[in-house]
Amino acid sequence: MNLARLRMQGNESSHTLWCDALTKHRVESDHVILVASVAGSGTAIKAMRAALSTGRCTFRLDDSEAIGSYAEMGRYKGGYRFVTHKLASDVAHLVAIAKMPGLLPVYSHEALYQELKCERYTTPVLRDWVPAIEAELKRRRLLSVAQMHGITSGLLGATSDDLDECLKAIAPLSII
């Protein structure tokens, strides 16, 4: 496991946490955190949760193995789902996942298949079609896959009509 430092800088305070997984995505002109798994003091974890909720903080991931030597990010304005666990007397773990439509926190063909089967899409899809659908979605820039630090996440921006068009483009597909 490769841990990186995630530094939070606010107007009046700063905290450092240990990060084992993080992905970001460009939304408008800013890079925002999509998925983060961090550990640190109870105070730092509470500050991270507050910063992701209010947005009054910037984040910097220092990791020599990530793209570049560091990356600066902000928060996703649509909010996050949080899960926190106490690890020791003053040490906690936080997982934050952006409430972004089409976000696949841990990307795989199975995750994409499950997302394509959700109520957002009216087109029936077979599991065997997923690799061809994935390639077509990527070609049309409707699916982006991001790996930054310790995790690969996906973001599916296709509508049901987009999925129909992708299936038409790659037809015929086996239905057996």
Protein architecture, described:
The chain is an alpha+beta fold. The chain folds into two domains: 4-98, no CATH class; 103-170, no CATH class. Helices cover 24% and strands 41% of the residues. The chain has four helices and ten strands, in the order βββαβββββααββα. The protein has helices at 42-54, 109-116, 130-139, 160-170; strands at residues 4-10, 14-27, 30-41, 57-62, 70-73, 80-88, 91-98, 103-104, 143-147, 152-156. The strands form two sheets. Strands 5-4-1-2-3-7-6 form a seven-stranded antiparallel β-sheet. The radius of gyration is 18 Å and the shape is elongated.
Tell me the Rg in angstroms.
Answer: 18 Å
Strand order of the largest sheet: 5-4-1-2-3-7-6
Describe the main β-sheet briefly.
7 strands, antiparallel
- Beginning-to-end CA distance, first to last residue: 41 Å
Estimate the global geometry from the Cα principal axes. Answer: elongated
Strand content: 35-45%
Elements, N to C (H/E): EEEHEEEEEHHEEH
Total helices: the number is 4
Number of folding domains?
Answer: 2
Uncertain spans? none
What percent of residues adopt helix (DSSP H or I)?
A: 10-25%
SS elements, strand count? 10
Output mean pLDDT: 86
Based on helices, strands and strand pairing, what is the structural class? alpha+beta
